[in-house]
């Protein structure tokens, strides 16, 4: 599709909470913006049809409510660089309420993310995969950097850093120099938050759905 909206970012996974704290306390990356608390509700088939094709459908509560379809092929995520197409629109509360009762209702909204699902996959029988909580610390300076602390349903936490950039080589050198200067241990991370969520909840899922 020509001129489709894109999101390009580097992603790192921090090894420990200590590394996360080094970044959020006097991080030196730029100006800290207010912390955002996000709730991410994910939808797919029980067979994970979209995820297996490198795509996902999500509703995020972040100030407002946002329905998004994103797609980035796993084999393109070289060293944690994501180049994704993203279709996102703000939605009223009633759409999420209905989707939690009847996930397939999302595809009947006529909104751009739903239209993209239908264009790519046709009608799907959706299920609600679960909800992931994320605490996001944005920093704006040379780059927009988002320092994330995710909380999984069992209470475990995971820590990530995302850097918005069209030039992954320059951004990688910059952020890795910062990591070294502060003895922060971080690895390029080629997995999405949804994949990390499903790794955490296991094959029966957060809602008891068996994923195959």
Label this structure with key terms.
212 residues; alpha+beta; Hypothetical Protein Pfu-838710-001; 6 helices; 25% helix
Rg from Cα: 17 Å
Note the main sheet.
8 strands, antiparallel, barrel
CATH class: Mainly Beta
Number of strands: 10
Amount of helix? 25-40%
What's the CATH topology label? Hypothetical Protein Pfu-838710-001
Write down the secondary-structure element order: EHEEHEEEHHEEEHEH
**Which stretches are low in confidence, meaning pLDDT under 50 for 5 or more residues running?**
none
Distance separating the two termini: 30 Å
Give me the secondary-structure category.
alpha+beta
Strands across the major sheet, in which order? Answer: 1-6-5-4-3-7-8-9
Counted up, domains total: 1
At the fourth level of CATH, the homologous superfamily is Hypothetical Protein Pfu-838710-001
- Oligomer category: single chain
CATH architecture classification name: Beta Barrel
Strand percentage: 35-45%
């Amino acid at each position: 599709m020509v001129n489709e909206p894109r999101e390009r970012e580097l992603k790192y996974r921090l090894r420990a909470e200590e590394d996360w704290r080094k970044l959020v306390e006097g991080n030196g990356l730029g100006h800290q913006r207010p912390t955002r608390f996000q709730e991410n509700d994910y939808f797919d088939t029980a067979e994970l049809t979209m995820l297996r094709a490198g795509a996902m459908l999500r509703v995020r509560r972040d100030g407002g409510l946002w329905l998004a379809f994103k797609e980035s092929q796993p084999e393109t995520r070289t060293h944690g660089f994501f180049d994704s197409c993203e279709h996102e629109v703000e939605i009223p509360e009633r759409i999420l309420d209905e989707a939690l009762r009847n996930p397939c209702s999302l595809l009947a909204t006529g909104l751009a993310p739903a239209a993209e699902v239908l264009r790519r996959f046709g009608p799907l029988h959706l299920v609600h995969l679960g909800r992931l909580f994320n605490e996001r610390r944005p920093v704006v300076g040379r780059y927009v950097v988002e320092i994330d602390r995710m909380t999984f349903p069992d209470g475990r936490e995971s820590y990530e850093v995302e850097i918005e950039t069209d030039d992954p080589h320059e951004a990688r050198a910059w952020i890795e120099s910062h990591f070294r200067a502060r003895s922060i241990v971080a690895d390029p991370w080629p997995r999405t938050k949804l994949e990390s969520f499903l790794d955490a909840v296991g094959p029966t899922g957060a809602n008891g759905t068996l994923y195959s």
